Automatic annotation (TrEMBL):
Transmembrane segments: none
GO cellular component: a single term: cytoplasm
Annotated Pfam families: PBDC1 (PF04669)
Top-level taxon of origin: Eukaryota
Name the UniProt record assigns to this protein: Polysaccharide biosynthesis domain containing 1
Organism encoding this protein: Nothoprocta perdicaria
Domain Polysaccharide biosynthesis: 30-154
Length: 171
């Protein structure tokens, strides 16, 4: 996914996205910027786990803490295939909220809207993507990488058509 316009537009978009949500109301232009940034992040991440053995990746400087805290609180959560209710129901939100807030000020853009694949065996499609906070993305993807769930994506790298098909939804 390419950013629209040149460096000036990119800088303006970055400034706009750094302001608090209350400053905008329901501005469709800002929503489009957020969506474009989330889609770009998804594509970069998918290309990364397609190119580098996922178990070797380090996503943040706090991977150890994020993974440890995540598995202590969400030990039984199956990360290979997620049920949206485990992320979005009221009960799930009550459990996720304290986990996420502990990383405020520690993980950049910890609460930024980020796309997450529901089934890690497949790419980012409309049916297989959900919007979560950045720290939820990190927690789940760090677990997927350490637990071998994302190996299937890495192993598909020898089939370029398989990788190309993963982003048809976003083009």
């Amino acid at each position: 996914m390419r950013a629209a316009g040149g460096p000036g537009e990119a800088a303006a978009a970055a400034r706009a996205l750094s302001l608090p949500a209350e400053a905008y109301g329901n501005d469709p232009g800002v929503e489009a910027l957020w969506a474009a940034r989330a889609a770009q992040h998804a594509e970069v991440y998918y290309n990364l786990i397609s190119s580098v053995e996922p178990s070797r990746l380090r996503l943040t400087r706090l991977d150890e803490r994020i993974y440890g805290d995540f598995r202590r609180l969400f030990g039984g959560l199956r990360v290979d295939r997620l049920d949206p209710e485990e992320l979005k129901s009221e009960a799930a939100k009550a459990k996720w909220r304290p986990f996420c807030l502990q990383f405020e000020g520690l993980v950049e853009d910890f609460n930024f809207g980020t796309l997450l694949r529901l089934d890690c065996r497949h790419g980012y499609t409309e049916e297989n993507s959900i919007l979560v906070t950045r720290i939820q993305f990190f927690a789940i993807e760090i677990a997927r990488n350490r637990e071998g769930c994302n190996d299937v994506v890495y192993n598909q790298r020898s089939d370029p058509t398989a990788l190309e098909m993963q982003f048809l939804f976003y083009r």
